[in-house]
Amino acid sequence: NIRKQKGIDITFSKIPLDDKKTLKIFYDVKTDGIFQFESDGMKNFLSKLKVSSFDDIVAALALFRPGPMDNIDTYIRRKEGKEKIDYIDSSLEPILKSTYGIIIYQEQIMQIFNKLASYTYAEADLIRRAISKKKEDIIINEKEKFITRAVSNGYLKENAERIYDLIMKFASYGFNKSHSVAYAMLAYQMMYLKINYPKEFYASLLTININTTNTIPIIICNHIRISKFNMIQSHNYCFVISCFNWYPIKMIILFISINIIIEFNNCFVHNNISALISNCSVNNRKINNMNISI
């Protein structure tokens, strides 16, 4: 729709991941209509997190889950410089620096196995799977092996034990960073479109929620300014949104096929709902209350 209606050749690959306006809206927690960021719980978390980068969005998706949620307050304090970061061993800093010393991603577990105990990434992935599936026999046997290898590589035994215990605590709930990045990318791109192309964004949002009667009024009332008539066109539907003089609060929404936009254009001269219904037709069929959501 952006290409067709505005003639702008926009592609997702051209959207910068450091766009200040986009990050500011995440910071302000205006995330209605954004994938994975609409729930009250997530919004409350974002208000504390104060997103300042794309990496924060990625981390938010991984942290806002059972298990890692326990680390949210610690993550925020460390991000704000209010708590000292504890890497347990300095060799883990390159792995955990971006997450302030906290294990958030499953990929970090594999890196730790590789760094401390010289596991191949294939071996580390097998252990990650065993821990995530809570296979206790493998977990117990592997702990001794991990500590022995780490000590032989010059690491302190007590540090190796602490690190393994942290891995066990986290792994059963950990999120793949690859998944988190993919979800964050989709959410970020949606936010970029929401800010820069709001008409097209909300047209698409209305389209995908066309059968969700509880969602559409929220979208309209919270995000779309109503003049006498507004028409929002998406790929499959045309939304005609109007506020009538004697309905100062309620929004009138009509959704129709794009092919009959011209017919509806001829109806815009009317300023009341009864005239709109009685004078408009779709494919020679009269519009009735079944076509209108109030």
Give a short summary of the structure.
The chain is an alpha+beta fold and 294 residues long.
Describe this structure in words.
It is a single chain. By secondary structure, the protein is of the alpha+beta class. The chain has helices at 2-6, 20-27, 40-49, 54-63, 72-79, 93-96, 106-117, 121-132, 136-152, 157-171, 177-196, 198-208, 215-223, 261-265, 273-279; strands spanning 229-233, 237-242, 252-257, 281-282, 285-286, 292-293. A four-stranded antiparallel sheet has the order 1-2-3-6, with helices on one face. The protein has a two-stranded antiparallel sheet with strand order 4-5. A hairpin with a 3-residue loop joins strand 1 and strand 2. Helix 2 (20-27) crosses helix 11 (177-196). The longest helix has 20 residues, at 177-196. The radius of gyration is 26 Å and the shape is elongated. The chain starts with a helix and ends with a strand. 29% of the residues are buried.
Report strand %. Answer: 5-15%
Structural class label: alpha+beta
Arithmetic mean of pLDDT: 78
What percent of the residues sit in helical stretches (DSSP H or I)? 40-55%
C-alpha-based Rg, rounded: 26 Å
Low-pLDDT runs: 226-231, 237-273, 280-294
